[in-house]
Write a structure and sequence with these properties.
The protein is an alpha/beta fold and 231 residues long. It folds into 2 domains: 40-47 and 162-230, Barwin-like endoglucanases (Beta Barrel), CATH 2.40.40; 52-160, no CATH class. Helices cover 20% and strands 35% of the residues. It is built from 5 helices and 15 strands. Strands 2, 3, 4, 5, 6, 7, 8, 9 and 10 form a 9-stranded mixed β-sheet that branches. The protein is globular and about 100 Å long.
Amino acid sequence: MAQDYEALLKQILEVASAYSNNAAPAASAPAPAPAPAPAACGLEPIPVGISNRHLHLSQADMDVLFGPGYELTKIKDLKQPGQFASKETVTIVGPKGALEKVRVLGPIRKATQVELLLGDSFKLGIKPPTRMSGDLAGSPGATIVGPKGTVVLSEGVIVAQRHIHMTAAEAAAYGVANGQTVSIEFDGPRCGVLGNVAIRAGEGHALECHVDTEEANALAITSDTTFKLIK
């Protein structure tokens, strides 16, 4: 037993001697600082525009709803060149209900087009397809009630497909083409990815991503939110 104790004591003294004769172990190197994140966390600097339900009118339907020769009253220019929000509103009526104070956007178009939120379809009792602006063939209609008259559309009600406006030069810079579909990734507390985003590139377009208020609410998107473009 004594021999075992002596052997153990000898080992302890040898270790202590070795430690005292050598420099104290160097402190562990600090962990490298994380690389700085790219600007805006790598999100593309494309402005976001959030659209509520609205409609565009033809001149013929404008005359019925507001009176012959009526002109829209601009209250705000929109991002896209020549487009604006007017003070005029109408009521959209479907088989099950109505939506009041739906704003008219200018300028006048060749065909009347109503752009709703998907949730509006339940209140109105219609099933609008998700389409790009102007793609109205086969879409359902609705009744539009204005201060001077009523228009019954046989077609023209859609839910707008999310999309990004840009010039041809901007499309080239981003590596996308007119008509292409991409995805957009949002950061933040309700982060997520929206797919099936159409590129609309060419003359008459200003750089802007359009989503509707339902999409914006789902991901807590505001006009200051940035996103990453996924091709």
